[in-house]
Amino acid sequence: MTSGSFPSPHPLPGSIQRPGLSQKALGMLSIACFALPLALGCKGSVKADAKASTNGDSEMDFDAEGKRDEAWESEALPASNSKARTSETQAPGQTPTTAAAMLGARHDLAPAGGQQPACQCLTVVAGAPNRSGLTWSAAPPQIDVRTQLVVALSSDQVTCPVEVPKASYMGYEVREADVVIQVEGAVAGRPLTQGAIVPRPMTGGKLLIESAPNLPYGKPTSGQGTCSVAY
After folding, report:
1. Cβ(198)–Cβ(148) below 8 Å
2. Rounded distance, CA 196 to CA 151, Å?
3. Contact 123, 112 (CB under 8 A)
4. Domain boundaries defined on the chain
C-alpha cells in the first residue's frame, strides 16, 4: 500500500485544528448558518405578501405587528384622559352641571316694587332666582332648587304703623325642619342687604321671618304670632 492511502498522522503546516468537531459536524453547522437567515427572510416575505393580498395594494406594512400591539394595549388598559373621566359621571349628550351658588347674603338682589307685604311692615319674596317679583342688578345665579331658596326683603314703600329703621337681612338659622330669616334694622355706615340664598325648608317645614322684639318685621300682617312666608 502506498502512503497516500492513509491520512497523515500529523497536521500539515499552516492548517487550523478544531478539537472536538468532526468534519461532518462542521459541514452541518455551516449549512445551518447559511439556512437560518434564508428562513427568516422567507418568513418576512410571507408576512409582507399576506399584507399585500389583504389590502389589495402592493405597499408593505413592516410595522403591522407593532400597530397591533399598540391597539391591543389601548383596549386593554383603562383610559386616563379627561374625556373618559367625564363619560363616567355624565351621560353622552348631557349638559354639564353648573355649580350652585353659595348660601348667604346677596347685595345684587331686592324685591320688585309694588309687592304686597308678607309680614308687618315688610315685603318678602322667596323662590327660584327667575321668579317674578325679584330684581337683580346682575345675572341671576344658579342654585340647587331642591335644597336652596332665594329670598328678597324690603321695608321700602311699605306702610308701617310705627317709625322704624329700614329692614336689612342679618342671617338665617335652621331649626329642625324650619328655616328662620333674621331681619335687623339698618345701621348708618353699613350696607343695606335685601337678599340672600338660604337653605330650603325640609318637608313639612316653614320659611319664617324673625326680628328683635322692638322691630315689627317678624310679625304677620295681623300683628300676632310669627310671620311665615310662602315660596
Report:
1. yes
2. 5
3. no
4. 23-84, 104-229
- The percent of residues above 90 in pLDDT, for the chain, comes to 50
Strands (DSSP E) contained in 35-147 are 104-106, 109-111, 123-127, 134-136
Q: For 114-226, list the strands marked E by DSSP.
A: 123-127, 134-136, 148-154, 167-175, 178-185, 195-199, 207-211
Confidence band, pLDDT 50/70/90 cuts, at residue 166: very high
Grid coordinates representing 14? 499552516
The per-residue pLDDT for range 65-83, each reduced to its tens digit, is: 554 444 333 333 333 333 3
Integer Cα distance of 112 and 116 in angstroms: 10
* Per-residue pLDDT at 178 exceeds 50: yes
**Residue 113 Cα distances to 94, 125, 126, 162, 222, angstroms:** 38, 11, 15, 21, 22
